[in-house]
């Protein structure tokens, strides 16, 4: 079941801060992109709730983020936990879904369909369930911003499964933006970003991969969590943007590179 873990100390809540008086929930906020996004919201004066499965990581992230940040232990694959969270959450102005999942990758001819099913269960279905559960709590003209992945529209061998998962989420963005209006629905589609998502790859292999991606990118480097966080913050706070999937790839998805 979901349990509240910790709350940091209160800092400046001056009305001069652009998000003062607003509340943001960042699902998957204990590290990487989610944590960086929560930090931007908190710096702008928002009350922030970060969720994740690991209590210690959440508490540490909340301390790093500062401001009015609450850590709430929640498994995004637990429907009952999701329902319980939103039943007690209070109003939400901005919802960011930054849950990650790696299952479903590999050459298609050898792709384990059970692994692909696990991939959908870890990301696609949680996003859908969370959004449905959150709707009664979301401000009518608030925002929902999804973190997908550039694999959705790339053509890299071995990523067909990941493309299916993230592509399914991205395909939902425009119709949801119309159906749920004036609630704004957007997504950020990151390229290769240095986050704990890559920790399972041995260090030397990971460094070689990052170097190769950096050389092929027009900007000459891979992404950082803050790069994606700023894109998420933009879409969440710009009231004139909805139905958009924003690529944040350093140009790696462009037809030509270096």
Going across the major beta sheet, what is the strand order? 1-4-3-2-5-6-7-8
The number of strands is 8
Output the CATH class name. Answer: Alpha Beta
Tell me the number of helical segments per DSSP (H or I, 4 or more residues long). 7
The coarse overall form would be globular
Percent helix, as a range, is 25-40%
Percentage beta strand: 15-25%
Average pLDDT number = 89
Ends distance: 49 Å
Number of domains: 1
Question: What structural class do helix, strand and pairing data support?
Answer: alpha/beta
Q: For the report, how would you describe the main beta sheet?
A: 8 strands, mixed
Notes on the protein architecture:
- It is a single chain.
- With 258 residues, the chain is an alpha/beta fold.
- It has a single domain, classed as NAD(P)-binding Rossmann-like Domain (Rossmann fold), CATH 3.40.50.
- Helices cover 40% and strands 19% of the residues.
- Strands 1-4-3-2-5-6-7-8 form an 8-stranded mixed beta sheet, with helices on both faces.
- Helix 1 packs parallel to helix 2 and helix 4 packs parallel to helix 5.
- The protein is globular.
- 44% of the residues are buried.
- Pfam families: adh_short_C2.
- InterPro entries: NAD(P)-bd_dom_sf (IPR036291), SDR_DHRS6-like (IPR051122), SDR_fam (IPR002347).
- This is Short-chain dehydrogenase.
- It comes from Streptomyces populi.
């Amino acid at each position: 079941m979901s349990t509240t873990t910790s709350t940091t100390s209160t800092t400046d809540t001056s009305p001069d801060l652009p998000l003062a008086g607003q509340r943001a929930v960042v699902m998957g906020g204990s590290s990487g992109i989610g944590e960086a996004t929560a930090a931007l919201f908190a710096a702008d004066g928002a009350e922030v709730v970060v969720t994740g499965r690991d209590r210690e990581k959440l508490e540490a992230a909340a301390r790093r983020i500062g401001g009015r940040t609450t850590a709430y232990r929640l498994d995004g694959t637990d429907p009952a936990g999701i329902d319980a969270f939103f039943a007690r959450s209070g109003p939400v102005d901005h919802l960011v879904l930054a849950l990650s999942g790696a299952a479903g990758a590999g050459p298609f001819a050898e792709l384990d369909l059970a692994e692909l099913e696990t991939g959908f269960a870890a990301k696609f279905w949680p996003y859908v369930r969370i959004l449905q559960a959150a709707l009664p709590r979301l401000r009518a003209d608030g925002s929902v911003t999804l973190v997908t992945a550039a694999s959705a529209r790339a053509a890299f061998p071995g990523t067909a499964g990941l493309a299916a998962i993230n592509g399914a989420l991205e395909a939902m963005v425009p119709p949801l933006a119309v159906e749920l209006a004036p609630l704004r629905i957007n997504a950020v589609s990151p390229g290769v970003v240095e986050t704990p998502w890559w920790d399972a790859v041995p260090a030397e292999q990971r460094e070689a991969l990052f170097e190769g991606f950096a050389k092929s990118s027009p900007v000459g480097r891979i992404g950082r969590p803050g790069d994606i966080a700023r894109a998420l913050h933009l879409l969440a706070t710009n009231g004139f943007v909805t139905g958009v999937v924003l690529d944040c790839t350093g140009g790696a998805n462009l037809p030509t590179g270096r």
